[in-house]
UniProtKB/TrEMBL annotation:
It comes from the Bacteria. This is RNA polymerase sigma factor. The lineage of its organism: Bacteria, Pseudomonadati, Bacteroidota, Flavobacteriia, Flavobacteriales. Keywords: DNA-binding, Sigma factor, Transcription, Transcription regulation. One of its GO terms (biological process) is DNA-templated transcription initiation.
């Protein structure tokens, strides 16, 4: 099938046409998204969102206004920029993944002895008492943020903000 025929069938919600369009364009669109986001996993999520938008808004495409690829490119670019500007994405970039630090912990050691060995405890002890309680529960006792919130009787959002700070 030619792209024009596929686009017409896509507008009629033909799943085969959608699949063919995905196969034709997804690799290029992923490259564009990943250039902006620079994170493969997040870029794959945005790519999926882009093609959901293409499916939902296919009737809004008009060949008189421009090429299909340009329309698809604009949706992709805007979705990637929206993702990079989102608060959740920015917060994720601020927080380090625990796996980056797991090499410090050996199976036969307990976290308090490790943290004391690296001098982390002395820095934690210099924080405000509420922050010390929060960090102690989250990092030294393994509580989740929700459990920490319930134990300290403070809102979950406050726990998340203090943890990030």
């Amino acid at each position: 099938m030619q792209p024009d025929e596929l686009i017409l069938q896509l507008k009629q919600k033909n799943e085969f046409a959608f699949s063919q369009i995905y196969d034709m364009y997804s690799e290029n669109i992923f490259g564009i998204i990943n250039t902006i986001i620079n994170d493969t996993q997040v870029s794959e999520e945005v790519l999926q969102d882009v093609f959901i938008k293409v499916w939902d808004k296919s009737e809004s495409y008009s060949s008189e206004k421009g090429r299909f690829f340009t329309w698809l490119l604009n949706i992709s670019r805007n979705a990637a920029i929206d993702k990079v500007r989102s608060k959740a994405y920015k917060n994720k970039r601020k927080n380090s993944d625990f796996n980056n630090f797991s090499f410090f912990i050996k199976d036969d050691m307990n976290l308090d002895s490790i943290s004391d060995g690296y001098g982390i405890r002395k820095f934690v002890d210099q924080l405000k008492p509420m922050c010390v309680k929060l960090i102690d529960l989250l990092f030294f006792k393994g509580y989740t943020q929700k459990e920490d919130s319930e134990t300290l009787e403070i809102p979950l959002g406050t726990v998340k903000s203090r943890n990030r700070t």
